[in-house]
Amino acid sequence: MARYFFGASNPIGRRSGFGREAATDIVIVGVVKDTRSQNLRTQPVRFVYIPYAQDSSLGSLSFYVRAATASSPATAIREAVQRIDPSLPLYDMKTMAAQVDESLFIDRMVAALSVAFGALATLLAAIGLYGVISYAVARRTREIGIRMALGAERNGVLWLVLREATVLTGIGIGGGLPAAVLLVRYVQAQLFGLSATDPRTLIASAAVLAGVALVAGYVPARRATAIDPMLALTE
Predict the structure, then answer these.
(1) Which one in 5, 68, 86, 180 has a CA-CA gap of 20 to 30 Å to 132?
(2) How far is CA 228 from CA 109, 130, 148, 167, in A?
(3) How many CA atoms are closer than 13 Å to the CA of 56, on its beta-carbon side?
C-alpha cells in the first residue's frame, strides 16, 4: 500500500483516512512487510493496520501468541484471559502450524492424488513397455539364436534388445516434454510456490521415466541373452 500511494517517498508521518469526512485522521507511524492475510495462495494485497482502541467498528480480535514451549499453550492463554476479564469469549484457538495445514489441505490432497495417479501411469507404462519388448524378443528368438551361434556376444545381444526400449523411451519423452510445456497453463493455477516450467522438474521427470523404461526393457533383454542357440534354432 505504501508503494501504491507514496511510491519511493517515505510515508512515515504522512496522513491518510477512510472516506471524505476522515480523509486525514490517520497518521502513518510505520510500514510493515507485505503479507498474505487470508491464505498462502492469495497474493499480498494493500493492507492497513490501525490500533484496535481507535476502531469504533471493531467486532472481534485475533491474537497471535509466541509461546516458549512447543506444547499447547491453550490452558495458559485461557487462564491469562480469565484473569483479565472472565466474560471474554475465546474460540477457534489453533497453532500457526495447524492454521497453515488447514490452508494447504486441499493443495496437499491434490498433490497426493497427482503423485498417486502419476505413479500408476508410470507403472502402466512400464508394464506396457515390458510387454512390447517381451513380444519382440519372442518373435526374434530364432534371429537371436542365429546371432549367438555365429559368435555374437551376450552384451551385444543385450544392447540389441535394449536399443529398442531406448528408442521407444526417447520417442515418448521427446513427444511428452513439448506437450507438457504446451499444456502447462491448465495446471499452473494448481501449483503453489512452484513454476510449472521448472527445468529441474522436467529433467528429473524425464530421467525417472527413462530409468523406469530401461529397467522394464532390461528384464526381457536379459532373458534374451540366456537363450540357448541350439534350442532357438530348433523352434
Answers:
(1) 180
(2) 52, 22, 8, 27
(3) 1
Is pLDDT of 116 > 90? yes
Q: Which of 210, 112, 119 is nearest to 162 (CA)?
A: 210
**C-alpha separations of 105 from 72, 93, 148, 233 in Å:** 21, 18, 58, 62
Cell of 190: 494448481
Amino acid identity at 25: D
CA dist 85 and 33 (Å) reads 33
Rounded-to-integer distance, Cα 36 and Cα 185, Å = 24
Of the candidates 211, 123, 210, the one whose C-alpha atom is nearest the C-alpha of residue 172 is: 210
Distance CA 92, CA 60 (A): 12
DSSP 70: S
Biggest CA-to-CA distance, the chain: 102
Q: Is the pTM of this model over 0.85?
A: no
Cross-strand pairs, 27: 15
- Among 167, 165, 142, smallest CA distance to 222 is for 165
Check if the beta carbon of residue 216 is closer than 8 Å to that of residue 165.
Answer: yes
Residue 16, classed as helix, strand or coil, is: strand
Find where cell 530364432 sits.
Answer: 142
Summarize pLDDT for 156-193 with one digit per residue, the tens.
878 877 887 788 888 888 888 888 878 777 776 666 66
pLDDT digits (tens, 9 = 90+) for 64-89: 888 877 666 888 888 888 898 888 88
Q: Which is it for the CA torsion 140, 142, 147, 151, positive or negative?
A: positive
